[in-house]
């Protein structure tokens, strides 16, 4: 057993999202806007990442997920990781629904197994393991808005056993039509049409539906491909009010020998939902009043694992030492020498998480 | 210094019975949980044998102490039955429950309710009581519902790695305790039968129209079951504080991936071998010291061959007693890992080895034979529990008597 790592290094990233994020050489240089409330992934040529025989057999989300994982492994220059851990809120819900519809329409008769096989939540983690012949640790979390956070906790504890290991960790969620239809009744998504870039101008209930797949190579050891340090992550489940979240953030920072003054920038997981954003809005007016403020869900939409997009964003800001205009809430100020980024995400005002990132 | 992980309580509901006592009684008396499906409405009710919990949702509501239908899925209800028993057995106070973590496993969450109300849910114009089930296609929904109901806030998580899911909750729960993130974690899984799962497995043609026969040369596939099982894990520090006598120690665990095929195990059982080997190596226990293996033993052609070869490879000439308890409960999928971990705990407590029912014919590919009759007064100290799943996931837990 090697010594316990103090820092966790993000040594590679691959991300597909409703923005053009698959190319690690550019950082939000072109912004895509959407006229409907559902944002889907912008994808590269899959055949550049997946062999054609395999490609034909895979559903859309498996293609997106495997591509993001492959970009990440190439970026980190790791051929096969020591373990693979994925997280997802709804998994392959549209595949699940395809099988379900067939089952209902055909009264449980003459069903083919393809949709069923590709609907299991661990299908992506299994597929990646199969593709790179990784027989190591393999796990999948499906904990709604905390799925990606559970993944990180798992990987961090595993790295405490061996800091030299490389864990390929990631999250994926699709903008499933089934979820959209089922939950729009409860105004989980906005009922009026908006343009995604205007998300934070709205004052109504609901967000816009997003999707994506993001993978990170996490290790207890830095490499020549390191993006940034993940100092720590913590989540809070079902806090009763903003004070509980404020206290949690304060003790989280203290546990990591960091003060609010050390934070150069905070990434706000507000979703544009007038109700669910209440605690986040309170935080921005109180705890984070003096901290430089950026938001992101107008770019990727809301999903259970949107915090994985935020992690990529934070890592990119530290790596490129640059904050794209589209993210900024505040007026311009000197942002040179960015050292610490704090992500505070929320999902449905119930699942909260904090990520502390440091420049290498 | 890392913490040792102890077990202080468990709760279980399966087709064998609605609590630990009833399950133990059935295991001892070779009473399997088969019967025609009568709670779930499916065209396969008389043709595909399954192991159903013969309690309707309304009775489950009453048992868990809820007076009105508040949109709990059957998965949540079965889960709560087992959770409440586990908390009671471990003697946890309200405060201790609140500061516990909850890690739950499921393969489908509330798909049973989602499929029942599918057309209503898919029409945003419709209104009605079915809206209680709006989010039941989400696999994490049941865990939040259970956590909210019993008052857990500290830490939650849901795992889904097909049929090895709840074994992985025990593993991650142990990790959280070992590295002092939590003092206490309740781990396990819940799985309700649904049309979705029955037809899914049926379309894969791995359901046996007769009672399943693990490790038998005539085996034709698995039978599905439902149930829930949760185990309370506590740190050695917590045990020292409370002065509780633990039931057993979770001393080792291994997780690997077969990396062979999306839904099939490797023919040489490499993943199974790796998971068991890791569990033993973590505990510092040699293969000769293992007294019993509760095999995954689904009775599919593929699993039993792969697992059997993995066992032979690890244990060589000295293969310990082993059996699959799936002919009792059917395959309870995400709950199977924790159901069978509890059967291992019962084996340790009772010093009994559970028989592998329905075995008649030796597999020609294997040199090993499962235990067929109940073995009593057998000295059991170290017990392995295997759980494998689609996607190549293999997990193994080592439970040690204290």
Automatic annotation (TrEMBL), chain A:
Query: Molecular function (GO) terms listed?
Result: acyltransferase activity
Indicate the segments annotated as coiled coil, or none if absent: none
InterPro entries per UniProt: Ketoacyl_synth_N, Thiolase-like
Cite the Beta-ketoacyl synthase-like N-terminal domain residue spans from the record: 45-219
Q: What is this protein called?
A: 3-oxoacyl-(Acyl-carrier-protein) synthase
* Organism this protein belongs to: Ohtaekwangia koreensis
UniProtKB/TrEMBL annotation, chain B:
State the superkingdom. Bacteria
Keyword Cytoplasm assigned to the entry: answer is: no
Q: Keywords in UniProt for this one?
A: Transferase
Swiss-Prot/TrEMBL GO biological process terms: fatty acid biosynthetic process
Q: What are the boundaries of the signal sequence? A: none
The record places domain Ketosynthase family 3 (KS3) at 2-401
Could you say which protein family the record assigns here?
A: Belongs to the thiolase-like superfamily. Beta-ketoacyl-ACP synthases family.
What name does this protein carry?
3-oxoacyl-[acyl-carrier-protein] synthase-1
Give the species this sequence originates from: Ohtaekwangia koreensis
């Amino acid at each position: 057993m090697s010594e316990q790592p103090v820092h966790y290094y993000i040594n590679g990233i691959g991300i597909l999202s409703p923005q053009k994020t698959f190319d690690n050489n550019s950082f939000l240089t072109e912004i895509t806007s959407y006229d409907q409330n559902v944002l889907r992934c912008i994808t590269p040529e899959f055949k550049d990442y997946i062999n054609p025989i395999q490609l034909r057999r895979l559903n859309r989300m498996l293609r997106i997920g495997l591509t993001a994982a492959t970009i990440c492994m190439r970026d980190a220059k790791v051929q096969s990781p020591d373990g693979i851990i994925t997280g997802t809120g709804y998994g392959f819900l549209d595949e699940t629904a395809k099988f379900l519809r067939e089952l209902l329409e055909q009264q449980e008769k003459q069903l083919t197994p393809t949709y069923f096989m590709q609907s299991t939540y661990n299908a992506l983690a299994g597929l990646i393991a199969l593709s790179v012949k990784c027989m190591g640790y393999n796990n999948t979390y499906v904990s709604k808005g905390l799925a990606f956070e559970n993944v990180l906790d798992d990987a961090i504890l595993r790295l405490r056993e061996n800091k030299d290991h490389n864990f390929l960790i990631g999250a994926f969620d699709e903008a499933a039509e089934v979820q959209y239809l089922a939950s729009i009744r409860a105004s989980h998504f906005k009922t009026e049409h908006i343009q995604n870039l205007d998300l934070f101008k709205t004052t109504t209930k609901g967000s816009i539906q997003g999707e994506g797949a993001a993978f990170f190579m996490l290790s207890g050891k830095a490499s020549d491909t390191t993006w940034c340090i993940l100092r720590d992550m913590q989540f809070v489940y079902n806090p009763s009010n903003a004070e509980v979240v404020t206290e949690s953030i304060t003790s989280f920072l203290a546990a990591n020998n960091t003060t609010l003054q050390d934070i150069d920038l905070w990434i706000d997981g507000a979703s544009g939902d007038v109700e669910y954003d209440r605690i986040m809005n309170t935080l921005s007016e109180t705890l984070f009043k003096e901290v430089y403020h950026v938001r992101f869900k107008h770019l990727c939409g809301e999903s259970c694992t949107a915090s994985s997009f935020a992690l990529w964003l934070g890592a990119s800001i530290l790596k490129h030492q640059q904050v794209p205009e589209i993210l900024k809430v505040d007026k311009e100020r000197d942002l040179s020498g960015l050292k610490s980024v704090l992500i505070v995400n929320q999902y449905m005002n119930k699942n909260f998480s904090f990520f502390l990132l440091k420049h290498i | 210094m890392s913490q040792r992980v102890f077990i202080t309580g468990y709760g279980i509901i399966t087709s064998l019975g609605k609590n630990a006592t009833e399950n133990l009684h059935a295991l001892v008396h070779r009473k399997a949980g088969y019967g025609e499906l009568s709670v779930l409405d499916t065209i396969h009710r008389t043709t595909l044998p399954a192991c159903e919990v013969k309690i309707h949702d309304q009775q489950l509501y009453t048992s868990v102490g809820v007076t009105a239908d508040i949109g709990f899925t059957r998965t949540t209800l079965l889960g709560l039955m087992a959770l409440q028993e586990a908390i009671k057995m471990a003697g946890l106070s309200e405060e201790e429950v609140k500061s516990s973590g909850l890690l739950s496993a499921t393969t489908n969450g509330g798909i049973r309710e989602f499929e029942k109300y599918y057309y209503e849910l898919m029409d945003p114009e419709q209104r009605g009581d079915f809206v209680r089930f709006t989010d039941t296609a989400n696999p994490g929904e049941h865990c939040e519902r259970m956590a909210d109901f019993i008052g857990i806030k500290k830490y939650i998580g849901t795992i889904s790695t097909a049929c090895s899911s709840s074994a992985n909750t025990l593993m991650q729960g142990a990790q959280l305790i070992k590295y002092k993130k939590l003092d206490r974690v309740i781990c396990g899984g819940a799985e309700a039968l649904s049309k979705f799962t029955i037809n899914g497995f049926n379309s894969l043609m791995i359901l046996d129209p007769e009672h399943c026969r693990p490790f038998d040369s005539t085996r034709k596939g698995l039978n599905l079951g439902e149930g829930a099982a949760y185990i309370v894990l506590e740190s050695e520090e917590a045990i020292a504080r409370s002065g509780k006598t633990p039931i057993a120690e979770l001393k080792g665990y291994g997780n690997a991936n077969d990396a062979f095929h999306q839904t099939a195990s490797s023919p040489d059982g490499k993943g199974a071998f790796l998971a068991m080997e890791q569990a033993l190596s973590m505990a510092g226990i040699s293969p000769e010291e293992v007294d019993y293996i509760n095999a995954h033993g689904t009775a599919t052609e593929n699993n039993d061959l792969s697992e059997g070869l993995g066992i032979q490879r690890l244990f060589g000439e000295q293969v310990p007693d082993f059996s699959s308890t799936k002919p009792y409960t059917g395959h309870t999928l995400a709950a199977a890992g924790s159901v069978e971990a509890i059967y291992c705990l019962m084996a340790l407590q009772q010093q009994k080895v559970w028989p592998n029912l329905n075995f008649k014919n030796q597999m020609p590919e294997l040199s090993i034979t499962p235990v067929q009759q109940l073995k009593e007064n057998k000295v059991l100290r170290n017990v392995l529990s295997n759980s494998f799943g689609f996607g190549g996931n293999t997990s193994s837990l080592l439970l040690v008597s204290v």
